[in-house]
Each structure stands twice: as structure tokens, then as C-alpha cells.
Amino acid sequence: MLLNTDKLTSDIKAAVSLIIKKDAESVEGFDHRLLAKLVRQSDNTAFSIKSGKITGETRSFLIDGVRRTILAFVGAMKGIDILTANRVHFAVSVVVFKTISDASGFEIKP
Predict the structure, then answer these.
(1) The whole model's pTM is what?
(2) If you placed Cys at 47, which of 2, 12, 74, 91 could pair as Cys (CB 3.0 to 4.6 Å)?
(3) Three-state SS across 28-42?
(4) Does 100 reside within a domain?
(5) What local confidence, expressed as pLDDT, does residue 21 receive?
């Protein structure tokens, strides 16, 4: 484990809560399993990149997987409108990719 997964989980929830102006977990469709998957996938991606034992193609594949999981996580939240969902998506992407970038030493843009 390379990332502080508890902190990443808290940071993601805080980013969502800041945008929607209420507790993230109160949103209809908030999925704890997708959040846990996103955090695990982020940790695995950061670890793989940091190890230096993967190709650029594999790195892109892993990053794309994280992007798809972010989309699924935000898309599951039925209790927010499309504009808010776009803002939540961007905020979660910033948190996740900054965390991965900081841990792995490889800059990823949201």
C-alpha cells in the first residue's frame, strides 16, 4: 500500500460534500463499494507507476481505469443534477490524480 487510503477516502468525501453542500453519503446513490474500489484502484495505480516496472501503455491503461471508476462513482449518485455531477467529477478527479501524482512522482492531469 503506497497511499494513505483512509485519507484519500476522506478527501474524496470532503470534495463531494463541498460541491453539493451537504454530507456526501446522504446523496441518493452514493456507493461505498465504488468509493472503496476507486481508492484501491488509485493505490494500485500509484504503486505500479512508482515501481517503474510497467510500460507507458500499461500506465495509460491503469490511469484510464481510474478515470472510468471516477465516472461510475459519480454516475451512481442519482441525487444530483448534471451540472453538479460535472463539478463533482472534476473535484474527485483533482483529488485522486493529485494523490496518485504525489505518491508516484508521475504527474497526471485530471
Answers:
(1) 0.96
(2) 2
(3) CCCCHHHHHHHHHHH
(4) yes
(5) 97
CB 69 within 8 A of CB 41: yes
For residue 18, tell me if it sits in a domain: yes
Say if residues 103 and 48 touch (Cβ distance below 8 Å): no
Taking the C-alpha atoms of residue 77 and residue 64, their distance in angstroms, rounded to an integer, is 21
As for how many domains the chain has, the answer is 1
Concatenated DSSP letters of 82-104: HHHHHHHHHHHHHHHHHHHHHHH
In the DSSP assignment, the letter for residue 24 is G
Which segments of the chain have a pLDDT < 70? none
- The predicted pLDDT at position 17 comes to 98
